[in-house]
Design goal:
The protein is of the alpha/beta class. Helices cover about 35% and strands about 15% of the residues. It is built from 15 helices and twelve strands.
Length: about 400
């Protein structure tokens, strides 16, 4: 069995559900009414009241965002409408630690829910941007001072940024790094959010600040607000099946951009897209570069696959095909995810399932995949872990 007892599973993709007072406890009095707040409303079915978020007068009903941990697949499909519909580990960090112990998971990085995966809601909704900025700071303070402070050995702090203002992004990087931030939840593509692309100079200060602070850019599927869709009539199963295509697009976008040439120490982590597509895409990108680089505005002396192996990390839950082709991806570029409390998670059997899919992987490779690659990516070490660094 490759997962020896000394191997600690570290998930690079989990999710927290913000409790009702995240912003109420942190926003100034003038922002209490328009800021994010939970409102109880009568249930359309006549049952117990439902709970919804309101922000700047707009209603956001999906408080749980697929928070279905503990339910059977036959029960999926209905978003939680009350916090009582979720297990407490979704929104309570102390209960989450108990659930992680049940699951055999040592540590995890958690993406936001209500603000969207990269905090993009505060950018996309517009309106009062002073309020939006205060909401970004309040979320980050919640993550750093409450959620991750519950046990800093086991929670990897991911922060969000005020994307509409590049200078404010830099300031927030400096502020949160001083408080212990380990990564930035970064949109997989800025363009659908109405922002300049990574091909422009607009983000240079932000990327430099992240690079200097050794913060990886954590790009979760869907963080651009543009999930794959094929037809209005198509079931959501089509979108779920195509999650990886968003991160394929992000990878091609990054590898042909100037980002890694300008920022040689920057790291990017791709979340919830699997890894099985990586060998094909790198082959395709390299072939395109070989044939077409001479007449295009791309760097002509560095092969894109070399950039991938230096800068980009993928993650998987049950990508058996990807694991079989792990050497074509790069052992040092693969990390593991749990995805608690979403429907892809195997909670409370994540370690047991990881043992199954990694059964044919040698111990030294398995340790990198489930633990030390993530530790290196996030600079997330303790004295015991340093001794087993592979």
């Amino acid at each position: 069995m490759p997962l020896q007892p000394s191997m600690k599973l570290i998930s690079v993709d989990d999710h927290l559900i913000e409790h009702p007072r995240v912003w109420a406890d942190r926003l100034p009095a003038k922002f209490q009414e328009p800021g994010p707040r939970i409102v109880d409303e009568p249930s359309p079915s006549g049952g117990p009241p439902i709970q919804v978020w309101y922000y700047q007068g707009k209603r956001f009903p999906a408080i749980g965002l697929n928070a279905v941990a503990g339910k059977r697949p036959e029960e999926y499909g209905v978003e939680p409408v009350r916090y009582a519909d979720m297990i407490p580990g979704c929104y309570d960090p102390r209960a989450r630690l108990v659930d992680m112990d049940l699951d055999g998971v040592w540590a995890g990085a958690n993406f936001p829910s209500f603000p969207r995966f990269a905090g993009a809601l505060f950018t996309a909704e517009g309106g009062d941007m002073e309020l939006a900025h205060a909401c970004v700071l309040a979320y980050n303070d919640f993550v750093l001072d409450e959620w991750c402070a519950t046990d800093p050995r086991r929670f990897i702090p991911l922060v969000v940024l005020p994307w509409w203002d590049a200078d404010a992004c830099v300031a927030e990087i400096h502020r949160t790094v001083a408080k212990g931030a380990k990564g930035i939840s970064f949109p997989e593509n800025m363009v659908p959010l109405g922002l300049p692309s990574l091909y422009t100079d607009h983000w240079e200060g932000v990327l430099s600040a992240a690079e200097e602070a050794n913060l990886p850019l954590c790009m979760h599927f869907g963080s651009s607000g543009s999930p794959p869709a094929t037809a209005p009539e198509a079931p959501y199963a089509v979108t779920i099946s195509l999650y990886g295509t968003n991160l394929m697009s992000a990878t091609a976008h990054l590898l042909f951009s100037p980002v890694f040439h300008r920022h040689p120490n920057l790291k990017v982590a791709l979340s919830e897209g699997g890894i099985g597509w990586v060998p094909y895409l790198l082959e395709r990108i390299d072939g395109t570069w070989e044939r077409h680089r001479w007449y295009q505005n791309v760097v002509k002396d560095v092969r894109p696959s070399e950039l991938f192996r230096k800068h980009i990390y993928g993650c998987f839950i049950d990508d058996v095909f990807g694991l079989k082709n792990r050497h074509d991806i790069g052992i040092d570029n693969i990390t593991w995810e749990c995805d608690y409390p979403h429907s892809d998670s195997y909670w409370p059997h994540s370690r047991k399932y990881a043992e199954k899919v990694l059964a044919d992987v040698p111990d030294d490779e398995a340790r990198k995949i489930v633990e030390t690659n993530a530790r290196r990516l996030f600079n997330f070490w303790d004295d015991e872990a340093r001794g087993v660094d592979a």
